[in-house]
Amino acid sequence: MMLTIVMIFISGIVGCAQQEDFLEKRIPLERYCKLNEDCIPNKCCHPTYLVNKKYGHVCNESVFCSIAIEDKTRMDVEKWEPACRSNICEVIYE
């Protein structure tokens, strides 16, 4: 009886660890969010996706970006909004 309880307890711990590993692989921590406000561009100049603000860069007027056409990304030229969908930071284009 005691052995059965111990085995159930151990399998529960292993199951939880495997589930956490799966979630970490499915949603990278830098992209994880709870609110739209958690999401910011991945870099100051010519961003390509959104990350959690904990992993973003501090962008201010001291950052100078190239204005070369070949450097421009879709986020540079189209209007977009940050969105947290299924706990992943995403760009929503209008």
Taking Cα atoms only, what radius of gyration do you get, to the nearest Å?
20 Å
Sheet with most strands: 2 strands, antiparallel
- Overall structural class, as computed from helix and strand content, comes to alpha+beta
* Strand line-up in the sheet with most strands: 1-2
Number of domains: 1
Structure, briefly:
With 94 residues, the chain is α+β, with helices and mostly antiparallel strands. The protein has two helices and four strands.
Keywords:
single chain; 94 residues; alpha+beta; two-stranded antiparallel ribbon; 19% strand; globular; disordered N terminus
Write the layout of secondary structure elements.
Blueprint (H helix, E strand, L loop, with lengths): L1 H25 L12 E3 L8 E3 L21 H4 L2 E6 L2 E6 L1
Antiparallel strand pairs: 1-2, 3-4
Structural summary, described in words:
The chain is α+β, with helices and mostly antiparallel strands. A hairpin with a 2-residue loop joins strand 3 (about 80-85) and strand 4. Strands 1-2 form a two-stranded antiparallel sheet. The protein has a two-stranded antiparallel ribbon with strand order 3-4. It has one domain. The N and C termini lie far apart (about 60 Å). Residues about 5-10 have low confidence and may be disordered. About 30% of the residues lie in helices and about 20% in strands.
